[in-house]
Amino acid sequence: MRKNLSLEVSLMLERIAMKLAAKIGLNLEDLLKVI
Fold first, then answer.
1. Sequential pLDDT tens for the chain (35 residues)
2. Per-residue H/E/C for the chain
3. Is the pTM of this model over 0.90?
């Protein structure tokens, strides 16, 4: 059970990291367009 829990948590963190990376990527693109 513990392994499953840690796996779910790691997957959640991975999704959050991907979303943050996507947001940062979009922001960087906007900044480059402005420059």
1. 678 899 999 999 999 999 999 999 999 898 888 86
2. CHHHHHHHHHHHHHHHHHHHHHHHHHHHHHHHHHC
3. no
